[in-house]
Amino acid sequence: MAEPLFRMARAEALRIVHLDSFVAVFHRSSGLTHLLAAPAPEIMATLGEAGLTRVALAEKLVADFDLEDLDDAALAERLDELVACGLVAAA
Amino acid sequence: MRHVFSVRIGPVGFRVGSTWRTPIEQLEALYANYPRPEVPDFSVRLFPARPWRQFIRPSVTIGGDFMLPDALPLPLAQGLLAAEMGMNLQMALGQRRYLLLHASVVERDGKALLMSGISGAGKSTLSALLSARGWRFMGDEFALIDPETGLLHAFPRLVSLKNAAIDVVTNALPDARFGPLLAGTPKGDIRHLVPDASAVAAMDTPVPPALLLFPSYGFEADERLVPLSEVFVRLTQASTNYVALGERGFDALARLVKTVPARAIDYPDTDSAVKQIEKLWAAL
Amino acid sequence: MGGVVSDGWLLARVLRTPGNALGLDAAGWTALIAIARAEQIIGTLASRLDGLKLPGDVARILDDARASAAQGQVAALWEVEMARRALAPLGEAVVLLKGSAFAAAGLRAGEGRSIGDLDILVPRARIDAVEAALLAAGWEWVKPNPYDDAYYRQWMHELPPLIHRDRDRMIDVHHTILPLTARITPDAVSLLASSVAVGPGVRMLAPNDVIVHAAAHLFADGDLAGGMRNLWDVHCLVDQFGTTGLDQRAAHHGLAKEVARSLRLAAALYGDGAKLTPGDHVYLRRLTARDSWGRPTRQVTRLGFYVRSHWLRMPPSMLAKHLWTKWRAKPD
């Protein structure tokens, strides 16, 4: 079975406004507003619409943000939360 | 509904129907300067829960297009309060054009000051006192923001003053018109202040917001900047229709939060508050 | 325009022929709006009047009603998606009932409709698994009360209501379309077997079954509350799907009389009229019992319907027991 690909919801589905350390996201499909703090916005931006597997996402986050290490369990949890509210799609 | 009263307040028209004559007479007297709507946006009804409640220990149940199922009735002596609460309820549950924030609004030099806070923070009192100092009164309960333009539309209902604030304001505004003293309401003593003629005359002139304050009463005078995300969250909590408006609500709120400076102020008494407010305004 | 009757017929006439509204004066419009709001159908009214030249105040009020209904549909369809995700691991599709079905399928009956809770139909055999899946996905019970809970599970046609803890939206899970204690027992298995796909993992009842459900809901399952809206649904569904095979399907579910009556009443209110029985006239009186403030009127008829609806749901001996227990439990 192929590894699932995680993709940010289509750009037309989201309205994104940067506040301070939080990002406000209006999700058109649900009508719900989410206030996201790191690492959620970074995860979404890194996934983009093309999408990445979880492993590839972890690698790219480490590279792009110069992280020393990355807690895989925490990343999995954040991804699940984003999928649960529709901001990220898992295929 | 034997007795009916209609009034337009800013962009919203109401009709109030009542089984009893007195609340309607009071409304007609206090809102005498206001225009009347053609077709009202909302209906409020004041009626007895049981037929005998019209005459025996008469009590007013608040109804209308939008109702709360467990609302407790008020004694007839507080019928005016019931009518005002009824109008608030229609706005809180039914307003879908303007983003509503629980805030008082006053205007100076073509720009609006919003004061957002829970009951008791002093928004009504402060807006009344500022109206005695050259600010135009635009409302003490709801700020109405047009999502298309970002402008504030005045919604100048009777100003609801409670307990100690009653004397403070009657002293500050000796020539103003007040409603009857309503004692022993669920929130203590209440008296309504009628907005002055210039506030009513200008109520159809919307203005852009320039300053957002979160006042807290009963503390040493202090002031702090409120970060954007905190403003955003506090305002969604202060809004009764943010979710129902969908994307328009988000746009209106995001624009307000990003373009208007926000401060939290603590104040020990209203004189101190007024000074702080006018100083912050001058520094804009 | 003098002598305008201000009750439900005012609303019916305008829904039937939107042009009928153009002669209304301010008082007429005010009454129409109040009655439409009371019948929870103002979004539909606004939809019907779209494109007509309306007085300024009215245009604004109806625009707002339409926008409100549209946003409500976005939220309702998201609930459908959330339910789909919760039940997918069970291999169960979500079979939609009522407003959510109309909106998801883009039916005429869904235009401008305001949608409340999500109503779904599941096989009785899977109801425990469905309940567990929903609880695991963040839904919780609205009211825990031991007696009411037992009553629901044993006799009612649905689980006690569930509400989602984050989104604050309710879901009603049905396993048939009438209470099990009712004298009429529709064929729930057949309802599910005949369901049609609306999208991946999302289904709704077949068109004739949708009409049968609307009729069942209106007559056997309530005190006619929301009747004008229910019959508007029937009117739109018949308009869109016709009635081929409807009689046989209704008879199969034991609801032939109810469906026939709902067709006559829908035609009388919104269509080209129908040959009405004396009973039909009583129903119409009750259905249109609103005044110009949207208040329910004709109280005597109303009480009669409430007693009837409970009688229909439970055999008299059970009814007595139910009411006795409820009366005892009521706090002073």
Give a verbal description of the structure.
The complex is a heterotrimer of chains A (91), B (284) and C (332). By secondary structure, chain A is α+β, with helices and mostly antiparallel strands. Helices cover 35% and strands 25% of the residues of chain A. Chain A has a domain of 59 residues. The radius of gyration of chain A is 13 Å and the shape is globular. Chain B is α+β, with helices and mostly antiparallel strands. Chain B folds into two domains: 92 residues, no CATH class; 184 residues, Rossmann fold, CATH 3.40.50. In chain B, strands 6, 7, 8, 9, 10, 14, 15 and 16 form an eight-stranded mixed sheet that branches. A five-stranded mixed sheet of chain B has the order 1-2-3-4-5, covered by helices on one side. A three-stranded antiparallel sheet of chain B has the order 11-13-12. In chain B, a hairpin with a 2-residue loop joins strand 1 and strand 2. The mean pLDDT of chain B is 95. Chain C has one domain. Chain C is built from 15 helices and seven strands. A seven-stranded mixed sheet of chain C has the order 3-4-5-2-1-7-6, with helices on one face. The C terminus of chain C is likely disordered. At the B-C interface, strand 2 of B face helix 2 and helix 4 of C.
Task: List the defining traits of the structure above.
heterotrimer, B: 284 residues, alpha+beta, Rossmann fold, 2 domains, 8-stranded mixed sheet, 5-stranded mixed sheet, 9 helices, 31% strand, C: 332 residues, alpha/beta, 7-stranded mixed sheet, 8% strand, globular, disordered C terminus
Count the DSSP helices of chain C. Answer: 15
Query: Strand tally of chain B, please?
Result: 16
For the record, the CATH architecture of the largest domain in chain B stands as 3-Layer(aba) Sandwich
Q: What is the name of the CATH topology of the largest domain in chain B?
A: Rossmann fold
Low-pLDDT stretches of chain B = none
Give the total of beta strands of chain C.
7
